[in-house]
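User: Okay, second chain of the day. Same drill as before: sequence in, structure tokens out.
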Amino acid sequence: MEVIKTAIEGVVIIKPRIFTDARGYFFESFSQKEFDEKVRPIRFVQDNESKSSYGVMRGLHYQKMPYTQSKLVRCVKGAVLDVAVDIREGSPTFGQHVAVELTEENHRQFFIPKGFAHGFAVLSEEAVFQYKCDEFYAPESEGGIQLIDEALGIDWRVPVENAILSEKDLHRACLKDSVLDFKYGEDLYK
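Assistant: Same drill. Structure tokens below.
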């Protein structure tokens, strides 16, 4: 696997080595050994999958301490715009984001470390999206930031009038009004 660094340290895109022939393709979608060596040592404990139609936007989600999560995500059908937002107070990249298009054709994956909010918008007619998480889902620890927070400057590539959000995501606070418990420089992996 090739690890592509982004403008925010720790947030990476993973490009697999794909073998194709007349029968189709094959690639290794995850190797614990390679991930630990090339990205960071981690232990994923939960896999999730969602199916959504065009215009669905999910996020910007995170889990609060002590249940904060890292995610390794990919789109196995269709296309999504996937986004990670730095929510570590004091970070030189606080409030900045990385956006990457994940598709069934490019097979890329996106690693979102702890201390980041995560969300995506479905760009295709339908999308099937998979997540690996290094902490179990803890509903009491749920957190989120408004997807359509203009201060974040995210171009979701879905017109706002076509966006489909959950009731919960629709009413989340903007980043400037959010109470966060992530501090830059704090080791979130201990």
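DSSP finds two helices and 13 strands in the chain.

User: Thanks, on to the next one.
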